[in-house]
Specification:
The protein has nine helices and ten strands. The strands form two sheets. Strands 1-2-8-7-6-5-4-3 form an eight-stranded antiparallel beta sheet, with helices on both faces. A two-stranded antiparallel sheet has the order 9-10. A hairpin with a 3-residue loop joins strand 7 and strand 8. Helix 4 crosses helix 6. The termini are far apart.
């Protein structure tokens, strides 16, 4: 006996739905497996928080990864990081980000960041990087959001930011942040010059043969940690009254970086807070894009 068409269509829809749920659960299962694999290092580490940092240097590419347990429900984390607008609030916190604005490109949201010095400077002297923002996956037990930029300062390219998360017991969330980019000859020369001068004594967070990572892996680890701490600061301030959230985010980010002063200390608190308040206020103004003779460099 042939089944009615409506029954066949319903069966097909259920099968497709089951396949989608299976795929989403597979992503969550993969991330939970990583959580189990790094559980010991989340509990026992020098960071004074449940986190692990990894890095790699492959040819002309650098990548950093932070795995961490954050004390916020998954729904809160997902709502914050699967929308484009909060990302400018996050990305403006690191010292070298001078500006961040939301736009559109090909139907997708964009974040145009301007990267510059560790002190005040005109926006025309900071280097723009345009990230395309996409939500790759979103379900009840997993999400993944991506920021991608093809070009950056000093011949750097292929910037990739991935954040993914899955819920844990006790209203906590396991979060993974990946940050990577590649560089050409000019970028390599600039990094080598930096590492031979002002960056000579700087280190990262992971250890190799009992010593803190240095060199280019130290660079990517410091940057990845800055962005992770910005995400954490944004989440921590999300329950504050709206009028207090900006200062709460900035204070939390600065306090967190000072816990790792050897790696991340750049300026004092008063200078940081005053500079960031001005930069956030400036984001509502048009950008003067007139040519400047000032060198435009990115964060190392």
């Amino acid at each position: 006996m042939r089944k009615p068409l409506s029954v066949l269509l319903l069966g097909a829809a259920l099968a497709i739905s089951a396949q989608g749920a299976s795929a989403e659960s597979s992503q969550a299962a993969t991330l939970r497996a990583k959580h189990a694999a790094v559980a010991d290092s989340l509990r026992n580490n020098p960071y004074r928080r449940p986190m692990r940092i990894e890095s790699a240097e492959n040819g002309n590419a650098l990548s950093g990864d932070v795995y961490a347990v954050v004390g916020h429900p998954f729904a809160t984390v997902s709502d914050a990081l699967t929308r484009a607008a909060p990302w400018c609030d996050i990305m403006i916190m690191p010292i070298n980000t001078k500006d961040c604005r939301i736009g559109q490109k090909g139907g997708a949201p964009t974040l145009t960041m301007r990267i510059g010095r560790k002190s005040d400077q005109p926006l025309k002297d900071a280097y723009p990087i345009e990230f395309v923002y996409r939500v790759a996956d979103k379900s009840a037990d997993y999400f993944a959001a991506r920021l991608e930029a093809e070009d950056g300062p000093i011949s750097t390219r292929d910037y990739r930011v991935l954040v993914e998360a899955t819920p844990l017991e006790g209203d906590k969330t396991f979060l993974h942040l990946h940050y990577s980019y590649a560089y050409g000859g000019t970028g390599r020369f600039a990094m080598q010059a930096y590492l031979a001068t002002v960056g000579a004594g700087k280190v990262g967070f992971s250890t190799v043969d009992g010593k803190l990572t240095g060199g280019m892996r130290g660079v990517i680890e410091r940057n990845t940690m800055r962005y992770y701490l910005a995400i954490d600061a944004y989440l921590a301030a999300s329950t504050a009254p709206p009028a207090e959230r900006l200062d709460r985010r900035l204070q939390t980010w600065f306090d967190s970086t000072e816990q790792y002063a050897r790696q991340l200390h750049e300026i004092d608190r008063a200078e940081y807070m005053a500079m960031k308040r001005r930069e956030v206020q400036r984001q509502g103004s048009p950008i003067d894009t007139a040519t400047s003779g000032t060198d435009r460099t990115g964060r190392l």
